[in-house]
């Protein structure tokens, strides 16, 4: 049986914890496929109990697991703590320790939710279904040298270095090509090759790799144009691959197209298991404990885990369809602004009925 390190965390993480358990049980009952949820402390709750946002035992258990499933950390109670005693410190350390270099962000908007998008309904009348892959371990965020230096004349200069190795680009891009093969066989690589050497290397590596994927239609786009096209016509994209900083910005831009953070899942994967699954949203303190949190991001994250870590694309697909069917009924949590607003538990139960 697969072992999942289960880190519900803070705020609505506690509301959504029950949803994950319900789905686990239903999947076992319906498909005879089971995974064990090993609940572990992280974030604010772990600071309160152990004085550490990522207790050593939590990390040790995560590394021994087949997958890590986290909901959200943080809250006002810990906002004034020193940096190393803040909930996010635990999450950042976890991501780094698992060495997950590819962040996968599906941007999915149901055709029943087009009223939520910041775009005109006509632009997204069929909904949205694109995936952004962001490289997570190199680029401007990690390149050396970095720092703020004082020059001989007393003025200061600040330096960050954008650096990419062909090895990283290649293993990252390969995930994009493989994903494209499983979807519409269309891949867009986003860079700034007219200005940056990093991007020229990026393009060269991606072009070379594309020879092994003759069926995939590959396009290159400069990042400024990609940002523009994302607003004009997001449905022209299927799978997008891009480096760390560009991916950070483009994935937040794409989230606005969907209109509620409660809809967006993510997966972060690396060379070795375990991979990390988490909804994109945070702990939403203002709605925590009120049975108001939208469970869709969590349900879609379970689907990603089934697909990418447990090779159960069939169950993942059924889960996504059950959510779609439920939305078609005109019901949803408050953030979805549907005809009928229902609570977290009630919505989750409707999805389970439709599974
Ligand atoms: P947030 O994602 O928690 O909330 C932003 C807005 O979206 C709020 O209006 C919230 O009510 C709404 N929202 C979020 N998830 C929702 C859901 N499932 N259903 C319905 N509405 C939802 O981001 P915010 O407010 O910036 O941060 C709150 C806390 O969460 C902070 O302590 C922050 O550090 C932490 N955080 C944690 C993250 C993580 O664990 N990965 C990511 C982002 C923030
Ligand atoms: Mg961001």
From TrEMBL:
Which lineage is the organism of this entry classified under, starting from the top rank? Bacteria, Pseudomonadati, Thermodesulfobiota, Thermodesulfobiia, Thermodesulfobiales
Q: What is its main location?
A: cytoplasm
Q: Which UniProt keywords apply?
A: Amino-acid biosynthesis, Branched-chain amino acid biosynthesis, Cytoplasm, Leucine biosynthesis, Magnesium, Manganese, Metal-binding, NAD, Oxidoreductase
User: In which pathway is this protein known to take part?
Assistant: Amino-acid biosynthesis; L-leucine biosynthesis; L-leucine from 3-methyl-2-oxobutanoate: step 3/4
Tell me which residues bind NAD(+): 75-88
Origin organism is Thermodesulfobium narugense DSM 14796
Q: Which SUPFAM superfamilies match?
A: Isocitrate/Isopropylmalate dehydrogenase-like (SSF53659)
InterPro entries per record: IsoCit/isopropylmalate_DH_CS, IsoPropMal-DH-like_dom, Isopropylmalate_DH
The protein's GO terms of the molecular function aspect are: 3-isopropylmalate dehydrogenase activity; magnesium ion binding; NAD binding
What is this protein identified as? 3-isopropylmalate dehydrogenase
Q: Which residues bind Mg(2+)?
A: 224, 248, 252
The Enzyme Commission number assigned here is: 1.1.1.85
Cofactor binding mode and count = Binds 1 Mg(2+) or Mn(2+) ion per subunit.
Q: Which cofactor does it need?
A: Mn(2+); Mg(2+)
